[in-house]
């Protein structure tokens, strides 16, 4: 490789990334970032699923009085008929 090859942006980025990955302090920071990032994603997922469950429960509770009233109306309308004479 000639000296000019090292000045190309692709080669410079590859060398910088390789040097960073070989450095223990950089690996430690990256590892910590991955752990904290994953923990944040898990917490966000828990919060979203909890909120979705609460919304579903509230929707069921709001629909319950409506369905009870509809059942009572149907039962009242289905009163026994008198036998024909």
Describe this structure in words.
- With 85 residues, this protein is an all-alpha fold.
- The protein has a domain at 8-44.
- 85% of the residues lie in helices and 0% in strands.
- The protein contains three helices and no strands.
- It has helices at 3-6, 9-22, 24-77.
- The longest helix has 54 residues, at 24-77.
- It is rod-shaped and about 110 Å long.
- The chain starts with a helix and ends in an 8-residue tail after the last helix.
- Proportion of β residues? under 5%
Number of helices: 3
Shape descriptor reads: rod-shaped
Helix content: over 70%
Total number of beta strands: 0
Low-confidence stretches: none
Order of helices and strands: HHH
The average pLDDT value, as a whole number, equals 82
Taking all Cα atoms into account, the compactness measure Rg is: 33 Å
Distance between the termini: 111 Å
- Output the structural class: mainly alpha
Biggest sheet, in brief?
none
Features:
85 residues; mainly alpha
Short overview:
The protein has helices at 3-6, 9-22, 24-77.
SSE order and pairing:
Layout: H1 3-6, H2 9-22, H3 24-77
């Amino acid at each position: 490789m000639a000296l000019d090859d090292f000045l190309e942006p692709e080669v410079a980025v590859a060398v910088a990334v390789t040097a960073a990955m070989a450095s223990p302090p950089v690996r430690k920071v990256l590892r910590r970032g991955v752990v904290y990032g994953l923990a944040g994603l898990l917490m966000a997922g828990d919060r979203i699923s909890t909120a979705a469950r609460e919304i579903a429960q509230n929707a069921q509770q709001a629909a319950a009085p409506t369905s009870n009233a509809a059942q009572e109306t149907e039962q009242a309308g289905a009163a026994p008929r008198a036998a024909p004479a």
